[in-house]
Amino acid sequence: MTNKKVVFIDSFDEFNLSVAKKIVDTIQYSIEKRGKASIAISGGTTPIEIFKVIKEKYLVKLDTEKLNIYWVDERYVSHNHPDSNFGIANDILLRHMKKVKIFPVDTEISITDAAYQYEQLLMMNFNSKKVVPKFDLVFLGMGSDGHTASLFPNTDQLSISDKAVITVKLKQLNYHRISLTFPVLNSAKNRIIAFYGQKKLKIYSEIQRNYHKKYPIQHLNPSSISESDSWFIGKF
Ligand code: 6PG
Fold it and tell me: What is the CATH number of the domain that holds 195?
């Protein structure tokens, strides 16, 4: 049975500290239990301060040589573009991690090839004959429309069950995206979902009241092998 834990946090600093600690603890637990940790991280703005806390407070504690880092999603821009999820994480944190293994999405090839090759990489690295690799941790945010990863409301991507990695081309987005799908997010052993702000808080309270899957975030369902499902919600 999954221990879903929801924590409401009043201050920005406390939010970043709590999420950073949970990420590090989950990585270390996976390394102790399984000899390594394979995690997928999100982009956007929420992770920025959290990555800074990990760099400042936890780098010495982390066995980064046993850590494999992938992406939940990526904007289809070059890695040195200011909005590159890889670029942001690498600049703040990853370049400081000794011997960490990093697997960014290749955005120098066509977007179709980028998604296909990332899925092939996952299948190879996770020895998954089927399509669904099982991450030790996926770290997710939520947009103010209830999207997570690059899985947006009212799109066919929400019900994809036979792919691990897809392309996302929506006119409302500044960039095309590559994204993991819900079967992958739901097969992770641990999930950390972190967001803050009144609009997102309202979405959270709304989804507690109704089960109609209006928002993509409601498609997150822990699987039988789930170890933990931690929600950190900033009330500021
Ligand atoms: C991305 C993220 C995305 C993010 C939400 C929330 O590439 O943008 O992976 O899923 O988690 O959009 O973004 P903010 O943290 O910027 O609100």
Answer: 3.40.50.1360
What is the value of pTM for the model shown? 0.97
CA 28 to centroid of ligand 1, rounded, Å: 25
Query: What is the residue with the minimal CA distance to atom 17 of ligand 1?
Result: 143
* Regions of the chain where pLDDT drops below 50: none
- What pLDDT was estimated at residue 3? 79
Residues with CB under 6 A from ligand 1: 42-46, 72-73, 85, 141-143, 148-150
| The pLDDT of residue 189 | 96
**Residue 23 tokens, joined:** 């990420």
- The pLDDT of residue 210: 80
Report which protein residue has its CA nearest ligand 1's atom 11.
Answer: 141
Q: Which residue has the tokens 């209830």?
A: 146
pLDDT attached to residue 131:
62
Q: What's the pLDDT at 2?
A: 59
Q: SS3 of 150, please?
A: coil
- By C-alpha distance, which of 154, 153, 151 is closest to 167? 151
The number of domains in the chain is 1
Give the count of alpha carbons within 13 A of 54, CB side only. 26
Domain carrying residue 86: 4-234
- In the chain the first and final C-alpha atoms are separated, in Å, by 31
36 Cβ neighbours under 8 A, 6+ residues apart? 30, 66, 67, 68
**What DSSP character marks residue 125?**
H
